[in-house]
Design brief:
The structure is a single chain. The protein is α/β, with parallel strands linked by helices. The protein has a single domain, classed as Aldolase class I (TIM Barrel, Alpha-Beta Barrel). Helix content is 37%, strand content 17%. It contains ten helices and ten strands. The strands form two sheets. It has an eight-stranded mixed sheet with strand order 1-4-5-6-7-8-9-10. Strands 2-3 form a two-stranded antiparallel sheet. Helix 7 packs parallel to helix 9.
């Protein structure tokens, strides 16, 4: 397999074959993200991709494939469909193909095109919401507002593709912490995703957010401030059937909960940790990471 640059994948794709069909991110403007800085986005040629597919066909049993990089769904259908058809031709037994998406790439696809992708094996899409607050979305240069993201999330689900949404604790800073949490809960309720992953923002040198922090324009909420946001998001989000996690390495308090069944229990746990102010139950800094 041939990989270029930094290749990333969601934690739930740890056991998946990583097939790189593009390099970098088509948007690459988010102020908090260091991943693809200085890397020019490009789509690999079909010949490059099929060579990797044929190589992977000799690896043995493969159940899951994840299409890299930052926004594989941005590929036009004339390029994406032949890749999926080649996977189905050469690799037998694949049960799920996943990819990253953003609001723009989803909204560019028609319902019929998304349904076609579903029929070709795309079973899950990962969408970075980050926040439901429109002012913060504009400030972090996410490239879509909350209404567009709601529309995109619903569109993916209507096509029969499972949806995993990522939110970022602390991305509104201390000043907009409560607005961020409340608006994010509202948007999550409107989308009603199958999975939610709450990560905690880590300010990385070299990003625009880092420069803002250094200049004094951005201040993180603090350890228990992050947990207050998490508690508000969980308490005010209503899901039909969602697996909610905050077990990413960036988080201080790992949580795995089925919603709505474990919602009240989860809210009580978060409140108890906040009220106790016991830092010993939180993940230590040396174990946190991106």
């Amino acid at each position: 397999m041939k990989y270029e640059g930094m290749v990333i994948r969601p934690p739930s794709e740890a056991r998946s074959l990583l097939l790189q069909i593009s390099v970098g991110c088509s948007h690459n403007k988010c102020t908090f993200c260091p991943t693809y800085k200085g890397e020019k986005f490009r789509i690999k040629t079909f010949e490059e991709i099929e060579e990797d597919i044929i190589e992977a066909s000799g690896y043995g049993h493969i159940e899951k494939i994840f299409l890299c990089d930052g926004d594989a769904l941005i590929l036009p259908m004339r390029k994406l469909v032949p890749i999926l058809e080649s996977i189905n031709t050469h690799i037998k037994g694949v049960q799920r193909i996943g990819l990253y998406a953003n609001a723009k790439s989803i909204l560019r696809k028609t319902p019929e095109e998304l349904a076609q992708l579903r029929n070709l094996g795309v079973k899950i899409a990962y969408l970075g919401l980050e926040t439901g607050n429109d002012e913060i979305l504009q400030k972090i240069q996410k490239g879509a507002d909350s209404l567009q993201t709601i529309e995109a999330g619903r569109k993916i689900k209507a096509a029969g593709i499972e949806l995993s949404v990522t939110v970022l604790l602390g991305i509104g800073g201390k000043a907009r912490s409560m607005e961020h949490a409340q608006d994010t809960a509202r948007v999550l309720t409107e989308i009603d995703p199958d999975y939610v992953g709450a990560l905690t923002v880590m300010v990385v040198p070299g990003t625009a957010l880092y420069e803002e922090q250094v200049s004094g324009g951005f201040e993180l909420p603090g350890k228990f401030g992050f947990l207050e946001e998490l508690g508000i998001m969980v308490a005010n989000s209503d899901f039909t059937d969602c697996f909610f996690t905050s077990n990413h390495a960036s988080n201080y308090l790992p949580i795995r909960a089925r919603m709505p069944q474990e919602k009240d229990e989860t809210v009580r746990l978060i409140q108890h940790v906040i009220e106790s102010s016991n830092k010993k139950v939180l993940r230590p800094e040396y174990l946190r990471g991106l």
